[in-house]
Each structure stands twice: as C-alpha cells, then as structure tokens.
Specification:
It is built from twelve helices and four strands; from the N terminus they run ααααβαβααααααββα. By secondary structure, the chain is mainly alpha-helical. It has one domain. The strands form two sheets. A two-stranded antiparallel ribbon has the order 1-2. The protein has a two-stranded antiparallel sheet with strand order 3-4. Strand 3 and strand 4 form a beta hairpin. The longest helix has 30 residues.
C-alpha cells in the first residue's frame, strides 16, 4: 500500500469516525451521570432523518442541523422522563427509543416524500460544505507534511472539526469544572451529592440533554455531511459501535477518540479494498465489511468484565426521607 493510498484511507477514517465520536461522547457523558443510554442509535437515526428532511425543504443545511438537535434532545428528555422521573428500566427505555426511531422515520419519510422511506437527494446549500484549512493549498506539495495536512486534515465538513474539538471540551468539562465533578459524583454516589444539597435529578437531566445534542449532531452529519440524504436504517449499528468504543475507552474522552478512530479505520479499509490477501487467504468484501461489528463483539466480550462502569449507573435514584 503506497503512501497516497494510506492518505486516502486516513482521510476517509476521519469522516467515518465523526458520527461515532459524537455518539461515543454522548453515551460517555450520560453514563458518567449514571444514566445508561442504549438509545444512541435511535436518536442518531431520527436526527439523520430530520436533518435531511428539513435541509431539503428549507434548502439550508444548518436549519436541518438545528432541527436534528431539537428532535434528538426531545427524545433524550423522553428517555430521561422514563428513567429518571418515573424510575423505569433505563435499558428498556433505550431499546424502546431504538424501535420507535426505526419505525417512525420510514413511515414519515414515505408519507412526506413518497420515495420508499428515504428523502430526496440533497445538493447545494442543503449539504454540508467542505472547509479548506489555512495554507492547505500552499503546503500541498511539501513532502509528508503536505499530504497529511492537505489530504487528511483539510477539506472536511465543519462538524468533523467540531467533533474533534468536543474531545478536549468533554475532558475539561468532566475533570476540570465543578459541573463535571458533580456529574461524575452523581454516577458514583448520588446520595452523597443529594446530601450536599445538589439536585441529582437536575444533573442527570443536564447530562441526558447534552447527550441529545451530541446525538443530534452525529445524525445530522450522517445524512447531510457523510451522505446526501436519509435512507432507511442508515445508522447501521453505529450507536452500538459507539457504546462498544465507550466501554473499550473505559468512559474516558481521549481514549474514546482513539477507539472510534480504530472503528473508522476498519470501515475505511473495508470501503477502499474490495478484498485483502492475508497470509495467502483472500478475504472477501463481506468479511471486510463485517470487521467493525466483529470487533464490537470481541471488545464487549473481552472488556466488559475489565471495564468498571460508574457504580450508580443504570439505577434510578430514590431520595431517602
């Protein structure tokens, strides 16, 4: 594999890892506050549909992104209502959101656009524009640095850079702010936080709302940046891959970025090479495309025991009187 092919694969990795990174950070923040969220997939799917639909109708991609974030936060608050206020089972609430999203997106898309559960193809201002970084053209022909800066880092949609920026911001919020300290404490020992006079319910709703915003951005990028419209079940298990990456990263933002780039790389390699020779064995394209999902199972089987989730995760908090 020559250097330019490697550059193309890594550039593709950046794009493919972006929705995973948003979703992984969303799950990480929610679970750090003690609210398990299996519904990342469903929220991304509804956000992807909403972004593509509103962008097509309005002709402006950013109105679509705003709509995607709005609907994703609304679904997050539904999850919060079920699991925080009514103390329902968090896993079942998340699964319900996934089922709801899978059905409702296709039904509404068919009703609105009559194209078999998909939106019309997006073009012009209804799609995310590519951004060229400063001096990308000037540095293009410089050996090594040029292909990396111009070929890999430059020329992506705005949300790719927003996703990368969210990693240090999430780390800073969780580990360097009072809000982050309280958020982590709510996930470990909510009774102690309550005793200190801080609202456990308020903090958990805050975490769930942030989770909704990030899932909204993930879905919006999926249908208006990575693709040119919405198609049925287009998230294709990315919400669950993000959960696997989060567990692999042990609920730490910087490690999460590394984990999602690993998954993105596998998908990019599967897209770039139709089949690969490994020690004389020819792997078909289907085996390559299955690699991210196989890795998900391997990681969950190998790391769930070793990765210790927040102690109060998955349990509703009942205030003692």
């Amino acid at each position: 594999m020559d250097f330019m092919v490697l550059v193309q694969v890594l550039e593709s990795t950046m794009r493919l890892a972006t929705p995973l990174l948003f979703a992984c950070l969303a799950g990480l923040i929610s679970e750090r506050a003690g609210v398990f969220d299996i519904g990342l997939e469903g929220k991304m799917l509804v956000a992807a549909f909403m972004a593509a639909s509103i962008a097509f109708v309005s002709g402006n991609v950013w109105i679509g992104v705003a709509a995607a974030v709005g609907v994703s936060v609304a679904m997050s608050l539904m999850h919060g209502l079920a699991s925080i206020t009514f103390r329902g089972n968090q896993l079942i609430s998340g699964v319900a959101i996934n089922f709801l999203a899978a059905g409702i997106t296709v039904v509404i898309a068919q009703n609105w656009f009559r194209q078999g559960g998909r939106t019309p193809s997006l073009s012009g201002d209804a799609r995310m524009a590519r951004i060229d970084l400063p001096f990308a053209e000037a540095l293009r022909d410089v050996p090594v640095i040029g292909p990396i800066y111009h070929g890999i880092l430059s020329g992506h949609a705005l949300l790719v850079y927003v996703a990368l920026l969210c990693v240090p911001l999430t780390w800073f919020m969780l580990f360097r702010t009072r809000f982050g300290l309280r958020l982590r404490a709510v996930g470990e020992n909510p009774a102690a936080v309550d005793t200190a006079g801080v609202s456990v319910v308020g903090l958990r709703y805050g975490a769930v709302a942030i989770c909704g915003v990030l899932c909204g951005l993930a879905g919006a990028y999926l249908s208006t940046g990575l693709s040119a419209g919405f198609v049925k079940d287009m998230t294709a298990g990315r919400g669950f891959i993000a959960l696997a990456a989060m567990i692999f990263a042990k609920w730490r933002p910087w490690h999460a970025m590394g984990a999602v780039f690993l998954f993105g790389l596998l998908e990019a390699v599967a897209n770039r090479f139709q089949n690969i020779d490994i020690l004389g064995v020819n792997l078909p394209v289907q085996a390559m495309q299955a690699l991210p999902y196989i890795l998900t199972v391997v990681i969950l089987a190998g790391f769930v025991g070793k990765a210790i989730p927040p102690r109060a995760g998955g349990a509703a908090y009942v205030k003692e009187h």
